[in-house]
Amino acid sequence: MQESLPVAAASPLSRRTRQARAVWGSNVVTIGGDAPVRIQSMTNTDTQEAVATAIQVKELALAGSELVRITVNTPEAAAQVPYIREQLDRMGIDVPLVGDFHYNGHRLLTEFPDCAQALSKYRINPGNVGKGEKRDRQFAQMIEAAMRWDKCVRIGVNWGSLDQELLAQMMDENSRRADPWDAKAVMYEALVTSAIESARQAESLGMDGSQIILSCKVSGVQDLVSVYRELARRCDYALHLGLTEAGMGTKGTVASSVAMGLLLQEGIGDTIRVSLTPQPGEPRTQEVVIAAEILQSLGLRSFVPSVTACPGCGRTTSTTFQELAKQIDDHLRSSMPVWRAKYPGVETMKLAVMGCIVNGPGESKHADIGISLPGTGEAPAAPVFIDGQKAMTLRGDNIARDFQRIVEEYIEKRFGHVADHA
């Protein structure tokens, strides 16, 4: 019998890219290189409404977004950007702002220098900067503004607004091949070519290549994987990752998670954004929560203590464990803005809230702190495990409240001394 070998542990591959810096005040957000994969989001407010936009930026930043993109599409919007930045600074929110420019970015960055300075990064779409000779001139104006104010840029190609002149040229070249590629392959090539050639053009204008981030946004999972694998193979620029128009609810969440999970596992992607269409009444911050969950699930980063909870079955007819799991998870997330500063390392904590005796004690022992609630027909007692050992048993009508108190005491005991000695 052949001797077995240890099962290899799966982990995301590493990939070293150039490192960009998005800066506001003392907050320097590094992208690429040895930096952690960053989370981005985008407001859906009218940028002309400075207060409403600043409030949403604050919400996104507190939820964990490390850069926030805002639409800068009109002179009126550009004029409000400095006031948005001012409002954020007054609120103590130093998250870098990214200006999203299409069609008229060259003019807005030139005519509104206060806007150009208030932003920390510019998003440039090569397909929307002009045609013919205008394209090169207007693209150069945006790059020159970035260099003047020492800003990084994302050259973001999108297959819904791809440079039509480039695509037509590549289609013509393809038609002359002895064995023509299919249309999708030409589209992939056009996306990658547009991004890399635009980056090289920016460098030829004098821009530091490390200050350039690339993206090639598509809306299909397999399309995104195909394009980014090739993009990563051909260049070492930092890469912004995400599906465009991913959708809403379950569809958008699953598609984004699958696509980005596949690529991040291969070491592709330096910053991500989940482009989730909010369901009616759903907060914009949900896209930040999902992005954080993707990175935490892959073991790339830790943002909030994880809660393991069973899905429930015929043994768990009571909803107590479901309610407790949600209560604990909601409490951890709402407390993190304070806990992150007060209890360094708390985001790595693991909790378990289980619903019956089958897996409950075992999962609870694997967690830092866990509770195994009684299932159908089991004794009305809930053993609590701390650091792998049974610590106590809760009974009565206040199990949920008692367990939350135990969790908070554990956090204070384990992580509070870290802050005291920092």
UniProtKB/TrEMBL annotation:
Residues 307-408 form the IspG C-terminal domain. Its cofactor is [4Fe-4S] cluster. One of its GO terms (molecular function) is 4 iron, 4 sulfur cluster binding. Gene3D superfamilies: Dihydropteroate synthase-like, Sulfite Reductase Hemoprotein, domain 1. Pfam families: GcpE, GcpE_C. It is an enzyme of class 1 (oxidoreductase). One of its GO terms (biological process) is terpenoid biosynthetic process. Residues 29-290 form the IspG TIM-barrel domain. Keywords: 4Fe-4S, Iron, Iron-sulfur, Isoprene biosynthesis, Metal-binding, Oxidoreductase. Binds 1 [4Fe-4S] cluster. The keyword 4Fe-4S applies. Its EC number is 1.17.7.3. [4Fe-4S] cluster binds at residues 310, 313, 356, 363. Belongs to the IspG family. NCBIfam families: ispG_gcpE (TIGR00612), PRK00366.1 (NF001540). PANTHER family: 4-HYDROXY-3-METHYLBUT-2-EN-1-YL DIPHOSPHATE SYNTHASE (PTHR30454), 4-HYDROXY-3-METHYLBUT-2-EN-1-YL DIPHOSPHATE SYNTHASE (FERREDOXIN), CHLOROPLASTIC (PTHR30454:SF0). This is 4-hydroxy-3-methylbut-2-en-1-yl diphosphate synthase (flavodoxin). The gene is ispG.
